[in-house]
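Sequence only, no structure available. Ideas?
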Amino acid sequence: MEMDTATIVLFSQDRAFSQVASGLLSATGEDYNLICLNTFSSFSELEATNGPLAVLVDWKSMPNPGRHGLVPRQENGEWLAINAEEGEVEDVSGWIELGYVGILPASRCLELLCKAVRVILNGELWYPRSEISRALRAYQQGGFNPQQLSGVLAEQFSLTSREREICHMLLKGLSNGQIARQGNISIHTVKTHVSNLMQKMEVNSRKELMARVMTETRSHEVVPVWS
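Reply:
I predicted one. Tokens follow.
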């Protein structure tokens, strides 16, 4: 079965950066439909696409599309903040709440761009593992308990026992590969369970799943992990 062509939208007002980034993505050999935009208002004028969509925001030249009415968590596609300052990378929970599936610091942006795009188009998050761990610890200190919250979600959305188990591992920050190894199942099976539980929770991507998790964390009395 032939896969739909992935569309990559790059927001940048830095022409030189845009040309280099586009060149790198074109050189991968992937059949990407590349679209470069220098205004956020142009996004609404794009034709709908049936294939995967990645949206890259050059945070150095076009920061914070939310100020222009473009909120990633409310839009289609997998949104990646690129060319960000080093200090901005640390606020993983903040980026996830905004709807971004990852962030690339300016210091390694071009080096990791193609790999990051491939990863997010595959439904994975792209954040430094150390920062994900730090964000999860912060949620734990604030009362975020992955095991209990997965139980709350399982009851609310009628998840099966296996889906609850997968949900628990997702909340712990595990990748599909790690879930497959820990659960002794195939990657394909993991993706099927993830797809099923996201459908039940009425979310279309991991960014929406994490946003839903944060909402549930705030709206339910979740017992801290140390209690």
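Residues 181 and 187 are 9 Å apart (CA to CA).
Hope that gets you unstuck.
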